[in-house]
Amino acid sequence: MSEPVPIDIPAAVDTGVAIAGLITAMGQAMGQVAPTHRQCFIMITNECSSFSLSSPRWYTHSGSCASPFPPTIRSHGVESALFMKTPNTACGSIGVVTYDLLNNDSNQTTEKIALMFSNPYDFNLYSNWYAVGVFDMSKECDENLYNEMYQGTSDSFIRSKADGKVLSYRGSQVTIKATMSDAYQPVMKVELSENK
């Protein structure tokens, strides 16, 4: 039987602290290379003279609305909202937003505009996607609309991967144009204009 070897406790503690510091530094560096915070900032510019946007609704497939759109976006108004991932989850910020298209003269809603955004958690498997469209007033802002705009095909909207292109969808009364940055925390900019 061999004799016990004495352990230098202060040296062992110093080594443990150094290893913990190294692991922490590595984790921070990895977090900077592959950030886990996901959010989507959406800005809408209403360039229409004849139409306002009213009664916003949203459905979040993943995450939540941290800062909502206002009840109305008046003619020539610019407004924004922020959607964020749920903290401490491996999910992104994903959903759909609708606004009713309100005729300023008649005070009647005529159609509904819709915006879909997908800012996934895992960029190794998924990409940022976005879509814009115009629907009739009966279209609900729910999981079905999100699934339709994310996976389906229709004459009511246009969809693209966020790769620098401008999406443009022409409805019967208005045209919606949009861009979306390809980033962990993308910005989606939407312009609404009257058809000539």
UniProtKB/TrEMBL annotation:
This protein's GO CC annotations: nematocyst; other organism cell membrane; pore complex
A Pfam family it matches: Anemone_cytotox
Location(s), subcellular: Nematocyst; Target cell membrane
InterPro entries for this protein: Actinoporin_PFT, Anemon_actinoporin-like, Cytolysin/lectin
GO molecular function, one term: channel activity
GO BP annotations, alphabetical order: cytolysis in another organism; monoatomic cation transport; pore complex assembly
SUPFAM superfamilies, sorted: Cytolysin/lectin
Gene3D superfamilies: Cytolysin/lectin
Keywords, ordered alphabetically: Membrane, Nematocyst, Target cell membrane, Target membrane
Transmembrane regions listed in the UniProt entry: none
PANTHER family attached to this UniProt entry: ACTINOPORIN-LIKE PROTEIN, BRYOPORIN
UniProt-recorded name of the protein: DELTA-sagatoxin-Srs1a
Source species of the chain: Salarias fasciatus
